[in-house]
Amino acid sequence: EYSSCTTEGRNDGNRWCATTSSYDKDKKYGFCPSRDTAVIGGNSEGEPCHFPFVFLGKEYTSCTSEGRGDGKLWCSTTEDYDEDKKWGFCPDQGYSLFLVAAHEFGHALGLDHSSVRDALMYPMYSYKENYPLHQDDIEGIQYLYGSKPGPKPTVPEPNTLTTTSYPETTDDPFFTTPSTKVPENDASVIDSAFEDVLTKKIYFFSGTRFWVYTGKSVLGPRSIEKLGLPNSVQKVEGALQRGTSKVLLFSGEDFWRLDVKTQKIDRGYPKPTEVVFGGVPNDAHDVFQYKGNTYFCRDRFYWRMNSRRQVDRVGYVNYDLLKCAEASGFHY
């Protein structure tokens, strides 16, 4: 029986855990966020966790809440806390998937953000162990659906998403001359994009192909394998600029570094996302930069990482980034 994440059964060192009470029976699992990164707060902010470390004579190989009454995860930044008293909070501590999902479910039911700080629907996240539902949340849902059991509510019509189809160019073998043919059936879904800061060309990725927009013409499509990505990569899910000629391309649990000048992947890649970007989902489906921060999105949630590679916010894509809540029309 395991009470925390483990690397047992793997030869790559990645920490994992079962998502049911019995992995042997259900075979359900997921990777644990890396906590081997810079700590937040305490008396050693910016220093990395030191594993293993000793606390009250016991050795710990991961972040722990031992010695605290608030359940927050922490670690020592030296090998012996008892002797050095150096510590900090683990960067991905304190975010309960249950509370995040419950808040999101409240929005799905029609609840807007609450002005009551202790309410589940308060816009700023706060962790509470054994979270009690606030009376404000109860009154809000009763205002919408009533306080007594009644007929089952009508199932709402599913939202329909209209996509626009764009024309497709011919699959020219090289980006030497822009296509002058009338394009047709171009990619209707863009997985990711980035702008070359030197040439101002914009790269668009869709599935296993990419295009380059020069400002006057579109070059492509071309296979992403031409950049050096393996054929196992079915789409590029995120692109992050690094300097003036490097771009990180994300897919699945790994990322590659592209040299834009040579149009080739640098040696030594891919690398696991969690090795460099600890505390974010390994399988983020959207990765982008905005105002100096890096955002990793998975499902309806986002993780914001600052310039020190610390996760400083977790929130909802629809309500925090896209500001959908203001237009929802639901108030209580």
Q: Notable features of this structure?
A:
19 strands; four-stranded antiparallel β-sheet; alpha+beta; globular; 12% helix; disordered C terminus; 4 domains; 332 residues; Seminal Fluid Protein  PDC-109 (Domain B)
Describe the structure.
This protein is an alpha+beta fold and 332 residues long. It folds into 4 domains: 1-32, Fibronectin, type II, collagen-binding (Seminal Fluid Protein  PDC-109 (Domain B), Ribbon), CATH 2.10.10; 35-89, Fibronectin, type II, collagen-binding (Seminal Fluid Protein  PDC-109 (Domain B), Ribbon); 97-145, no CATH class; 192-321, Hemopexin-like domain (Hemopexin, 4 Propeller), CATH 2.110.10.10. 12% of the residues lie in helices and 24% in strands. The protein has 6 helices and 19 strands. The strands form 6 sheets. Strands 11, 12, 13, 14 and 15 form a 5-stranded antiparallel beta sheet that branches. The protein has a 4-stranded antiparallel beta sheet with strand order 7-8-9-10, with no helix packed on it. The chain is globular, with a radius of gyration of 24 Å. The protein starts with 15 loop residues before the first strand and ends in an 11-residue tail after the last helix. Residues 160-185 and 325-332 have low confidence and may be disordered.
- Helix fraction? 10-25%
State the total count of DSSP E strands: 19
- What CATH architecture label of the largest domain applies? 4 Propeller
- Taking the alpha carbons of the first and last residues, their distance comes to 46 Å
Major sheet characteristics: 5 strands, antiparallel
* Approximate strand percentage: 15-25%
Subunit structure: Exists as monomer or homodimer; disulfide-linked. Also exists as heterodimer with LCN2. Macrophages and transformed cell lines produce only the monomeric form. Interacts with ECM1.
GO molecular function: metalloendopeptidase activity; zinc ion binding
Protein name: Matrix metalloproteinase-9
Catalytic activity: Cleavage of gelatin types I and V and collagen types IV and V
